[in-house]
Design a protein that fits this description.
With 346 residues, the protein is of the alpha/beta class. The protein has two domains: 98 residues, Aspartate Aminotransferase, domain 1, CATH 3.90.1150; 236 residues, Aspartate Aminotransferase, domain 2, CATH 3.40.640.10. Helix content is 40%, strand content 17%. The strands form three sheets. The chain has a seven-stranded mixed sheet, sandwiched between helices. Strands 9-10-13-12 form a four-stranded antiparallel sheet, with helices on one face. Strand 6, helix 8 and strand 7 form a beta-alpha-beta unit. Helix 1 packs across helix 10, helix 2 packs parallel to helix 10 and helix 8 packs across helix 11. The radius of gyration is 21 Å and the shape is globular. 45% of the residues are buried.
């Protein structure tokens, strides 16, 4: 194989660098003294721009990591006898090292996913079964969904309305894990304000779309806001020099930078998916609706692909690889993939 082809990085959007405008914002915030623990002007402005984006009353907390945002959000509405319902592939269930169980002392109840999503009928059945034994089982209190899902598919507004209606009828809170929320908004061609119908709390990402270690928790339900400042601290998510995280969101929302970056990642993923679909030896596992591509490959191809493309073998039992496009995945990268696939087919 030609050594001139640059290794393409599709391992994760977590591997991508922070956007230059974000780095500039951090540098500009690094000026003289400023109040600590969120008492600075950057944090106040970041909260304001996020509130304006969602066009509704909400409380915003900037946090340093997505797992922390999820734990913080779930902690707002849970007692130790209550449980969280999610899909079997939910990030909080199989990629957060048991943080929910360990730190919140709650049970995660899983249901099989369909294209990554919660199926309403299965959700209702699970709620009924869990409540059937009264004090001998847990009381489901929160439904946690991921938007977009762990396999890159997107809940439509209609699907979200259906789930939120079930939550209201069953007295469940609705939590959204939105580490790639912007990619979903671009895919649906919707403003952020139209993406949160019936949502009580949103773990809003940033790091995967061009920020540097900055996420946030957005609380829409007014009853969950009381005491949330204490839980921000108690859950170890309150940074002393908060201005460096908050300044990033200001740059991120200015001129809808978030939209431009998510659009680029989604577009590259579509182009890559076209390559996969046009290759007889490769097969897409799921529809490519955002920036994640899952596909199966012949066993002999996998080490050769990983030699040229930084990526993960996602499911070895199916010979399934995962590629993720980032905001800085380039047309050149797509061209390199095309060359790699053509060489492997010879």
């Amino acid at each position: 194989m030609s050594s001139k082809v640059r290794k393409v990085c599709l391992a994760s959007d977590n591997w991508s660098p922070a956007h230059p405008l974000v780095m500039k914002a951090i540098e500009e915030a690094n000026d003289d003294f400023a109040p600590s623990y969120g008492g600075d002007r950057w944090t106040e402005e970041a909260q304001s721009v996020i509130q304006k984006a969602f066009k509704r009353s909400c409380k915003v907390f900037v946090v340093p990591c997505g797992t922390g945002a999820n734990i913080f959000g779930l902690s707002l509405g849970l007692r130790r006898s209550e449980s969280v319902i999610c899909t079997d592939i939910a990030h909080i269930n199989y990629q957060e090292s048991g943080a929910s169980e360990a730190l919140l002392g709650c049970k995660l109840i899983t249901i099989p996913h369909e294209n990554g999503k919660v199926v309403p009928e299965l959700l209702i059945a699970k709620i009924r079964r869990e409540r059937a034994f009264g004090m001998h089982s847990t009381n489901p209190r929160i439904l946690s969904i991921t938007q977009p899902t762990e396999i890159g598919t997107v809940y439509t507004p209609e699907e979200l309305i259906t789930l939120s209606k079930i939550c209201k009828e069953e007295k469940l809170l609705l939590h959204v894990d939105g580490s790639r929320f912007y990619n979903a908004a671009v895919s649906l061609q919707l403003p952020l304000a139209d993406m949160v119908h019936g949502v009580d709390m949103l773990s809003l990402g940033g790091t995967k779309n061009g920020l540097m270690g900055a996420e946030s928790l957005v609380i829409f339900h007014p009853d969950l806001q009381e005491g949330s400042g204490h839980l921000h601290k108690q859950n170890l998510q309150l940074m002393s020099k908060m201005r460096y995280l908050s300044a990033q969101y200001i740059a991120f929302f200015k001129n809808d930078l978030w939209h431009a970056l998510a659009r680029e990642a989604n577009q590259r993923a579509k182009e890559i998916a076209t390559l996969v679909k046009s290759t007889p030896s490769l097969s897409l596992s799921y529809p490519v609706e955002t920036n994640q591509i899952f596909f199966t490959a012949p066993p002999a191809w996998i080490p050769k692909i990983q030699e040229r493309v930084a990526c993960h073998l996602w499911d070895s039992s199916k010979q399934e690889l995962r590629w993720i496009a980032s905001w800085n995945t380039s047309e050149e990268d797509v061209g390199s993939l095309r060359m790699i696939i053509q060489e492997m087919m010879r």
